[in-house]
Design goal:
Elements lengths: L1 H77 L25 H18 L11 H4 L3 E6 L10 E6 L6 E6 L4 E5 L4 E6 L6 E7 L7 E6 L4 E6 L6 E7 L6 E6 L5 E6 L4 E5 L5 E4 L9 E4 L5 E5 L5 E5 L5 E5 L13 E2 L5 E7 L2 E6 L4 E7 L6 E6 L5 E6 L2 E6 L5 E5 L7 E4 L6 E5 L2 E6 L3
Antiparallel strand pairs: 1-28, 2-3, 3-4, 4-5, 6-7, 7-8, 8-9, 10-11, 11-12, 12-13, 14-15, 15-16, 16-17, 18-19, 19-20, 20-21, 22-23, 23-24, 24-25, 26-27, 27-28
Length: about 450
């Protein structure tokens, strides 16, 4: 009996040893597998980190190249050579033109004009005898033309001064009328009617060998064009442009003088032939309404403002966007006015409701900001023909500044609501419109 119990005990111990060895072997395999897995994971993590170290510089380089390519595209569209040193004036050059949406003859004329103007810019200086800043500081009101337009509803809304006949100027008013006036004879030369709502913009088309045209853009969604009959001296209606479905917010004559551009709150801009009076291009609808417009002095770009603080710049030949300019950390505001500098390197625009920014188009960033005071509301901005001066019209009068030094040279009608400003020949005059009056500032005789 004791023998049987001993045999059973030995057999049980043997079985336990077998199970122990089996479990030890399984544990050994498990530890081996865990170690192998750990080694594999470690190798994968190392390879991942090595891949990241290899790819990250490539990513940074790609991002940098993408940014530079985008900036290069903007500069190319602006006609600026990217080889020039940063921060210095660079040469304007003609860039290749892809197949565009404008008619081939118009694109050819734009390219030819761009080549001529950009080549001339390299040697351009202020015209001989141009008014110096010290004289501008001495400007006073030398003439005042009153009782323009109707008394009800009163108010001049737009102003344009003739370059061919410097004593003549155009005004548009809240009374839906356009007036042509000669300050040398103190006579209204023409009163042009036809709009059903207030006038937003007026412009001359004056070109050698071409009929003199007067253009007016209105809140009534139309643009009217009148032509001068040399024999009678009267202005006759030529056409009414009804392309847009929203208020016309911008009007500019192209440097080739045979086309004009319009912007509208219907989120499009359009180009029109001033010889045939046909629509030759209309942009695709944008995300935002267009609230202002100007054409680059070389003729290849068009800038439009929006109610979301952004300025969109398009290649006028193709309709493709070339740049988008937005101030950083700014409360939303409407870009209601724009002005390219004559040298083509800068764009003047509101930077808020009460400040303006000078955009450096070579770097596509703001070069300088001018604060006009919290109670000042910007109505109109304008560069002079020499790009030496810039003017701002607003709810508290007008201001004239020197470009580059940003010195304030002159205050006009301080405290009054000035609708628009314009520079006269050689910067010898500054014209301003307010209420029913146009004033001329210059050196007293």
């Amino acid at each position: 009996m004791l023998q049987n119990e001993w045999d059973a005990l030995v057999l049980g111990t043997h079985q336990l040893e077998q199970k122990y060895n089996a479990m030890r072997q399984e544990l050994s395999y498990a530890l081996y597998n865990q170690d192998a897995a750990t080694r594999v994971i470690a190798r994968l993590i190392r390879e991942r980190d090595e891949a990241r170290e290899y790819v990250y510089p490539l990513f940074v380089e790609y991002a940098s190249l993408t940014r530079l390519r985008a900036l290069g595209n903007v500069k190319a569209n602006l006609g600026i050579s990217s080889s020039g040193p940063s921060g210095e004036d660079v040469e304007m050059t003609e860039n290749g033109t892809p197949e565009g949406s404008l008619p081939a003859n118009v694109v050819s004329a734009i390219d030819e004009k761009h080549q001529v103007l950009s080549a001339a810019r390299r040697k351009r200086k202020a015209p001989q005898g141009y008014t110096p800043a010290e004289d501008v500081k001495q400007f006073t009101v030398t003439k005042s033309i009153t009782a323009l337009h109707s008394a009800s509803p009163a108010g001049i809304t737009s102003l344009a001064v003739s370059t061919a006949h410097p004593t003549q100027f155009l005004t548009g008013g809240n009374d839906k009328v356009v007036q042509l006036y000669d300050s040398s004879t103190d006579k209204i030369l023409a009163t042009l009617k036809g709009h059903t709502k207030k006038i937003n913009h007026v412009a001359f088309r004056e070109a050698e060998g071409e009929q003199r045209l007067i253009l007016s853009a209105s809140t009534d969604k139309t643009v009217k064009i009148w032509g001068l009959d040399e024999a009678s001296g009267e202005y006759a209606p030529k056409t009414t442009i009804r392309t847009h479905k929203g208020e016309i917010t911008g009007l500019a004559i192209h440097p080739i003088n045979t086309i004009a551009a319009l912007s509208s709150t219907d989120k499009t801009y359009s180009v029109h032939d001033l010889t045939t009076f046909k629509d030759i291009f209309r942009s695709s609808p944008s995300e935002d309404a267009f609230t202002s417009l100007d054409i680059h002095p070389d003729g290849t770009l068009i800038a439009v403002g929006t109610p979301t603080s952004t300025i969109q710049i398009y290649d006028i030949r193709t309709g493709e966007i070339a740049a988008s300019l937005s101030p950083t950390d700014a409360a939303p505001f409407t870009v209601n006015t724009l002005s390219f500098s004559e040298n083509g390197y800068h764009l003047l625009a509101p930077n808020s409701l009460s400040s303006v920014a000078i955009w450096d188009l070579r770097k596509t960033k703001i070069g300088h900001t001018i604060d006009l005071g919290e109670d000042f509301k910007v109505n109109k901005v304008k560069y002079d023909i020499s790009a030496q001066y810039l003017a701002v019209a607003g709810s508290k009068g007008g201001r004239v500044f020197a470009h580059k030094t940003w010195e304030e040279l002159l205050r006009l009608d301080d405290g009054s609501d000035v609708a628009g400003l314009a520079f006269g020949p050689n910067g010898a005059q500054i014209w301003g419109a307010q209420n029913r009056e146009v004033k001329i500032w210059s050196i007293p005789a």
